[in-house]
Amino acid sequence: MKILIADDSRVMRQIVVRTLRQAGFGDHTLIEAADGQEAYDMATKDQPDLVISDWNMPQMTGIEVLRQLRAAGNNVKFGFVTSECTPEMKSAAEAAGSAFFIVKPFTAERFDEVFAPILG
């Protein structure tokens, strides 16, 4: 499977990659986007099987990326790994079609719990 990791922090993208490997998902193809517009473009062009997105990014926020993908008929599995967590954010994510919402800091065990049903 192809997994798109979208976060404006290169260090955070590396942490997500490392945690995916620690959770046993390192054999998937991992691609990265450095902002929301790039995430949207890559989600459209590269057709990943899963998008793991930060909430706050330049160009477009993660929720804007998700909403635009859904508006365009793209049903890629999409969810958030973010440092912010309010009930309003979770509700907005679920309403937009988010498959998961992981709050930083996270663990390999949390990734396994969330991604095992998605990635097998």
Automatic annotation (TrEMBL):
Residues 2-119 form the Response regulatory domain. It comes from the Bacteria. SMART domains: REC. InterPro entries: CheY-like_superfamily, Sig_transdc_resp-reg_receiver, ST_Response_Regulator. One of its GO terms (biological process) is phosphorelay signal transduction system. Keywords: Phosphoprotein. The keyword Transcription regulation does not apply. The modification 4-aspartylphosphate is found at residue 54. This is Two-component system chemotaxis response regulator CheY. It comes from Actinoplanes teichomyceticus.
